[in-house]
Amino acid sequence: MAVVEGLIRTKDNETLDFGNYELESKSKADNFEFGGDLYKVKTFREITKLERNGMFVYESVPGTAVNGFRMTDSGAVFSVGGPEDAQITLGLEDQTEYTVCVNGVEAGQMKTNLSGKLSLSVELEEGGMVEVKVEKK
Asked: Exposed end of the chain (fewer CB within 10 Å): N or C?
């Protein structure tokens, strides 16, 4: 999976691509307009973080590259790649149960905490990508 050289971009004006885990120092892109919202991405080899209108949306440790990212009223869908396994946190609806699927296989039911954060782990290896779907139950 290729990293996103400009740090953030749209794909067919329907989804977002963001993140560059190859960077040695933290880089950011701010005020990226998409769908009437302003996005900010911070990324490098240790972390990738996305905010929408100043609110938390996505974070991975270590850094990742994300393709086809789309948030909906019922959850999120995206493909993620990186050089090693990653812990991903998503900002969703608080105290809500979600079904998590990784590469089409259900990884179980998870409930967000009081701040709406849901954490999951994905197994990654350089050059590969994993499809993630998180859907409200």
From this structure: C
Q: How far apart (Å, rounded) are the C-alpha atoms in residues 103 and 133?
A: 8
Q: Return d(Cα 91, Cα 59) in angstroms, integer.
A: 9
51 phi/psi in degrees, rounded to 5: -125, 145
Question: Domains along the chain?
Answer: 8-136 (2.60.220)
Structure confidence by residue, pLDDT tens digits, 59-91: 999 999 999 999 999 999 999 999 999 999 999
Q: How far apart are CA 103 and CA 131, in angstroms?
A: 5
Number of Cβ within a 10 Å radius of residue 30: 12
pLDDT at position 13 over 90: no
Structure tokens at 29: 């892109």
Starting at the edge strand that comes first in sequence, how are the strands of the sheet with 75-81 ordered? 8-11, 15-18, 65-72, 75-81, 130-136, 97-102, 105-111
DSSP code, position 116? -
- What is this structure's pTM? 0.94
Do 136 and 98 contact (CB within 8 A), yes or no? yes
